[in-house]
Write a structure and sequence with these properties.
This protein has 3 helices and 5 strands. It has helices at 2-31, 43-53, 99-109, and strands at 34-36, 57-66, 69-78, 81-88, 93-98. The longest helix is centred in the N-terminal third of the chain and has 30 residues, at 2-31. The chain folds into 2 domains: 1-31; 33-109, Nuclear Transport Factor 2, Chain: A. By secondary structure, the protein is an alpha+beta fold.
Length: 110
């Protein structure tokens, strides 16, 4: 009886794990996000990101597709503050916001 229960618990846990992994993979496919390095982005994007980072640390860059256009979103730490920089494939700065800006917007919703 104990062995049967252990087998069932193991099976349920395994199925749960597979479903979670599948959900994460599906979300990434739907969002079309791909993590890339600074060496993999177009030169115009690299130039804009480095200029906007202003010596900060670029932690992560994601390539995404929005409205059929490729965009790059970088997570950068500037003076201890996390900043998201969004750049078009041609190097045009599309936006720059701090995590504090996001937190303030969340506070206003309350």
């Amino acid at each position: 009886m104990k062995q049967k229960r252990s087998t069932i618990i193991g099976l349920v846990a395994g199925v749960g794990l597979v479903l979670c992994i599948g959900a994460i993979a599906t979300q990434q496919i739907l969002e079309n996000e791909t993590e890339v390095s600074i060496e993999q982005v177009p030169e115009a994007v690299k130039t804009t990101l480095l200029a906007e980072a202003n010596g900060g640390t670029i932690n992560e860059i994601e390539m995404d597709t929005e409205d059929g256009q490729t965009v790059y979103e970088a997570e950068v730490i500037i003076d201890g503050v996390e900043v998201e920089i969004k750049v078009a494939a041609d190097g045009t700065l599309l936006g720059k916001e701090t995590e504090q800006d996001d937190d303030d917007a969340d506070d206003e919703d309350d």
